[in-house]
Task: inverse folding
């Protein structure tokens, strides 16, 4: 069971019974370089036999431990999950015969394209929502401050889908160039859209992110898939890794590695945490935006690199790729990503744009209705192919339905 949270930078701990543990208490506007990570307790709670992953793995989740520490029963936690996360089911994880033959590998695909809002993103967010709903139930939250997110892609769609279902107001901060189809869908879901043009007196950085931070300072809840903004996003995302581990065991196989696409980094961190250190985890970024691979060179050269965050993780200038969902100029969750790579013997892969394009064609031809972002893990396998033994069992996640 999760015992609490601990800042991976300054070491400050937050007990699991404390509500709203979004950010490290020492994070400030001038020093935002902190991130709360989960701390595992000694006991490993047993699973519930259920097709909904948020019920099945519920007792392992941080929001559940928070609710239990504040007097909610396990039955009440389960009932709340069935209300808030009713749409989630265990997604398919199967060997792709076509891709295995083409690559001369045993290639296993976790297909997240049919998950809530068409990607894995809702898994990260629903843990935050469950924490909020539990806090309401316990009597720690009397009104509903708005949820806020800066995104114009899968994370925004997931946030809007969950917020609509919960009847909770959501503000989405988007760049001026947002895709019209995404805008329409967000609008249908009742999200309040804020198009953020750069203002003359704005400091450097993404204006949507600046407006999001202002909203958070004014009391909005960071409903985001970036650990430094809300550490609880690193909770529910682990269900995907647990599912893959259990599905592999159920199929009687052992995975050799997982190759996971990275934007902000929360996804790879959670897959790694769920799969465990026995499965090598490699991260993939496109050659036109690879801040994690860039930081890796500096990270491995120094002791406790998290102390030097702003020097180690440098924003990428002019990110570019057709995999437009992983163009985050910084890998916000680089500390957790580095940890899962170091512990499992993995490394960052930089995929040439030609491999991003080819992987998307191969994935589509193999029957996955996935976006170039969602098939970018496969691009990493292509780029790394000559260094992987033939016949090795490699897992990728196709997330992000083609729109
Ligand atoms: C389909 C898809 N895969 C992977 C990612 C990367 O996730 P993260 O930003 O947590 O690294 C994203 C992020 O937007 C995504 O939309
Ligand atoms: Zn801290």
Result:
């Amino acid at each position: 069971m999760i015992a609490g949270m601990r800042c991976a930078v300054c070491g400050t701990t937050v007990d699991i019974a404390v509500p709203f543990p979004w950010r490290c208490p020492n994070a400030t506007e001038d020093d935002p370089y902190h991130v709360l990570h989960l701390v595992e307790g000694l006991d490993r709670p047993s699973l519930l036999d259920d097709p909904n992953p948020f019920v099945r793995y519920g007792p392992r989740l941080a929001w559940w431990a928070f609710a239990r520490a504040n007097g909610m029963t396990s039955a009440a936690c389960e009932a709340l999950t069935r209300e808030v996360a009713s749409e989630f089911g265990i997604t398919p994880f199967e060997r792709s015969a076509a891709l295995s033959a083409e690559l001369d590998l045993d290639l296993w695909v976790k297909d997240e394209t049919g998950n809530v809002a068409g990607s894995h993103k809702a898994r990260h967010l629903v843990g935050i929502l469950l924490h909020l709903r539990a806090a309401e139930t316990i009597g720690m939250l009397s009104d509903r401050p708005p949820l806020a997110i800066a995104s114009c892609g899968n994370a925004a769609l997931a946030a809007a889908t969950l917020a609509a279902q919960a009847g909770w107001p959501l503000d989405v901060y988007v760049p001026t160039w947002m895709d019209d189809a995404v805008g329409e869908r967000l609008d249908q879901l009742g999200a309040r859209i804020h198009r953020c043009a750069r203002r003359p007196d704005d400091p450097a950085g993404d204006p949507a992110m600046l407006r999001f931070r202002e909203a958070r300072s004014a009391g909005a809840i960071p409903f985001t898939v970036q650990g430094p903004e809300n550490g609880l996003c690193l909770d529910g995302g682990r269900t995907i890794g647990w599912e893959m581990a259990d599905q592999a065991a159920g199929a009687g196989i052992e995975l050799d590695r997982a190759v996971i696409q990275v934007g902000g980094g929360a996804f790879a961190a959670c897959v790694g945490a769920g799969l465990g250190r026995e499965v090598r985890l490699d991260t993939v970024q496109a050659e036109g935006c690879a801040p994690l691979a860039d930081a890796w060179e500096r990270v491995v050269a120094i002791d406790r690199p998290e102390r030097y965050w702003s020097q180690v993780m440098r924003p990428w200038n002019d990110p570019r790729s057709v995999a437009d969902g992983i163009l985050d100029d910084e890998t916000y969750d680089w500390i957790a990503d580095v940890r899962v790579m170091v512990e499992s013997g993995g490394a960052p892969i930089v995929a040439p744009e030609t491999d991003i394009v080819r992987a998307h064609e191969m994935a589509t031809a193999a029957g996955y209705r996935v976006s170039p972002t969602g098939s970018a893990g496969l691009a990493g396998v292509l780029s790394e192919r000559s260094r992987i033994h033939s016949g090795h069992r490699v897992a990728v996640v196709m997330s992000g339905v083609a729109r």
Observations:
- The chain has two domains: 2-85+121-234, 93-120+237-398.
- The chain is about 40% helix and 15% strand.
- The pocket of zinc ion (ligand 2) is lined by residues 7, 9-10, 12, 24, 26, 34 (CB under 6 Å).
